[in-house]
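Appendix B. Worked example

We walk through a single record from start to finish. Start with the input: the chain for MBL fold metallo-hydrolase, Sporosarcina psychrophila, length 143.
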Amino acid sequence: MKQSNIIFFEQAFPSANMVLIKDQLPILIDTGFGSDVKRTERLIQEAGVSPTELQLIVNTHYHSDHVGGNFHFQNNYDVKVAAHKWEAGLINAGDFEACCAEWLDQPVEPYRVDRMLSDNDKIDTGNRVLEVFHTPGHTLGHI
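Next comes the structure step. The output line below is what the pipeline stores for this chain.
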């Protein structure tokens, strides 16, 4: 039986779930809390992907349970980060609410968004093309 290249990392509350797409150009959707980053890194490695191979982190929105590990992967492995343009602008401008918000008592180390996403944008993983759907509600830039 063929194994899926889409790996779901289910996390216990209050941390967020993550998805690793283990294609030719591996991407990670969300990074969890910063305090869980070593566990996140271990999960990725156990799935057969080195953090140095990650091509992109895609954030669904900017709450700390989804972006807390961004700084670690960006700073240590030069992984690019993508987020919706509305949140990316706030994060890159250093907006305190967006960059350092302590959702669920978890601070976020400052990071930068390298790729600003909009509705219907495409993300190529080498084996498939993902389409971005802007779904505001939980946050204005939720995708």
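Two observations about the output. The chain has one domain: 6-131. The two ends are 32 Å apart (CA to CA).
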